[in-house]
Each structure stands twice: as C-alpha cells, then as structure tokens.
Amino acid sequence: MRVRLEVHDGYLRVEVAGGFDADAARRGIGEMFETCAARQLNRVFVDARGLEQDIGIAQRFELALNLAQRHAGQVRIAILADPARMTTKALEDSACNRGVPVRTTTDVGEAYGFLGIEPPG
C-alpha cells in the first residue's frame, strides 16, 4: 500500500493506493497526525479511491480505533472512497463514536464540504 502526504493551503491531502496493508495504514495514520501537529493543520482529505481491494469490517474497526488513539486537537478527516468499495460506514461510525470527526463518502464535494474548504480546480 502506498501512502503519500501533501500539505496544501490549510489542509493535508493523503493519497492511499494499492493493496490494503494494516501496518502501512497504521504508519500512515501516525505520519498524518504528526504532519498535522507540525504544520498546525486541522483538516485532512484522504483520497482512498486508489485502494485495489475491499477493507473488511474488522479492519475498518481497527483503523477507527487507531485514529481515535492517535487523534489530537480538532482534526477533521474526510475520506473519499471508490463507490465499489463503499459498502459500509463502519470506520466513520466507529471513529465518530470515539470523538474523531470523520466522514466517509464517494462524493468529492461532500468530502471537501465536510472540511469547510472549496474543492480544487
């Protein structure tokens, strides 16, 4: 799994692609929050449309737990998913239940709207 982070004006963009790897996802979450803290960012746009396989319910739950354990400050996270991979809101529900503001969606406008920023382009 490839995880690429880019700092944009006022937010962090994270691109995730390839086959899902739980260890790489945990490292990526750590890097994401470290970058937010270092750059004083409180909004993250995750483009996960490049994932090549479904992520199981247990894996989504584990990702939400990891987000909650590492979450600091008021960081909001929008996750843009491929419609074919958007089978459940388990990650969103589990993260939100633990105080992490997360929105998973297949709509670019909804994702950026959740973050309160205009989509690029």
Strand percentage lies at: 25-35%
CATH topology: Transcription Regulator spoIIAA
Anisotropy-based shape: globular
Q: Can you tell me the CATH architecture?
A: 2-Layer Sandwich
Whole-number average pLDDT? 92
Molecular structure report:
The protein is α/β, with parallel strands linked by helices and 121 residues long. It has one domain: STAS domain (Transcription Regulator spoIIAA, 2-Layer Sandwich), CATH 3.30.750. Helices cover 40% and strands 27% of the residues. The protein has four helices and five strands. It has a five-stranded mixed beta sheet with strand order 1-2-3-4-5, with helices on both faces. Strand 1 and strand 2 form a beta hairpin. Helix 2 runs parallel beside helix 3. The protein starts with a strand and ends in a 6-residue tail after the last helix. 28% of the residues are buried.
